[in-house]
Amino acid sequence: MVVCEALCGLEIATIAPARRDDILRVFVFPWRMPLARLGRASLLIYWIHVELVYGYASWLWRHRLPLWGTAIAFVAFSALMYAAVVLRDEVASRRRQGTRAVARPATA
Questions:
Q1: Structural domain that includes position 5
Q2: Mean pLDDT across 48-57
Q3: What pTM did the predictor assign?
Q4: Residues near 53 by Cβ (< 8 Å), separated by ≥ 6?
Q5: Domain check: are 23 and 62 in the same one?
Q6: Same domain for 45 and 19
Q7: In the 3-class helix/strand/coil scheme, how is 32-84 assigned residue by residue?
């Protein structure tokens, strides 16, 4: 993975600046926000993944999935973790908006 990223970085560095900006805009920038969101929620993701992967919730399929099943489970689990982060952020945002509305003094 590191070698692939190094080769990609080397290729982007050797491209003309105008074309490099187009490549970055198309391939790199769309991934920045989701990765930043996952990074800010890494403790939540860690906590949920430990419970689901190593806890009682996974006893049915632990050590029983074939490689293709593991790949599908990885993609599904990653999508569910991102959905959990989005849901947590949405609930926190609504809660903050609700507290602001309640905290305003009533005018007579």
A1: 1-32
A2: 82
A3: 0.61
A4: 77
A5: no
A6: no
A7: HHHHHHHHHCHHHHHHHHHHHHHCHHHCCCCCCCCHHHHHHHHHHHHHHHHHH
